[in-house]
Here is the input.
Amino acid sequence: MIQTRWLGRMPYPEALDLQEQTVKERIAGTVGDQLLLLEHEPVYTIGRLPDQSSLREPDRLEHPVIQVGRGGQATYHGPGQLIGYPILDLRTRGQDLHRYMRALESVLIEALGKYGLSGERQEGLTGVWVGQRKIASIGVGVRRWISLHGFALVVGGDLSPFEKITPCGIQGVQITSVSRELGREVEVREMADVVAGIFERDSGW
Here is the structure.
């Protein structure tokens, strides 16, 4: 059983603190599995990696840059993106990060399918694409096999901040959104309800 919490729009540091606290509670067993769903204020994030060239020129970026304890290169989060932070006990799910990331991709692919969009994986890469356009990013971490960080599904919003970096370190990648692909606006909260329904049904994997 997973508890979903819709948190609205939050600054990244505040959401990170909430994740950290929830992970501690999950390790202690005082809460069950959680799915935190929200939007972020504009921010760039990057994993703790020696190579941070995907930020290009970090001193010239218009939004804050935060280094975080997840895998992966630079990405942008902002209004219009559905951010999901599953705080799950992976000991009951095979203790396999690759399997976990594929499961997150499957959830997002199914959610896109409910809007008539064909989400796809690309071999050797993490995330979800529509055609050759990336629509969702995934970057996870674990602490005592409790997951943190998670996924960002681009539902709408301004995509231009992605052009200032090399998203996920993939040269030439084009970022798209659900709204752009459909030619109509889709609300983040609407998509959050769709994703939550899939998670609550299938989170045992």
Summary: Residues 54 and 170 are 8 Å apart (CA to CA). The longest strand covers residues 133-143. The radius of gyration is 16 Å. The domain at 2-202 is CATH 3.30.930.10 (BirA Bifunctional Protein; domain 2).
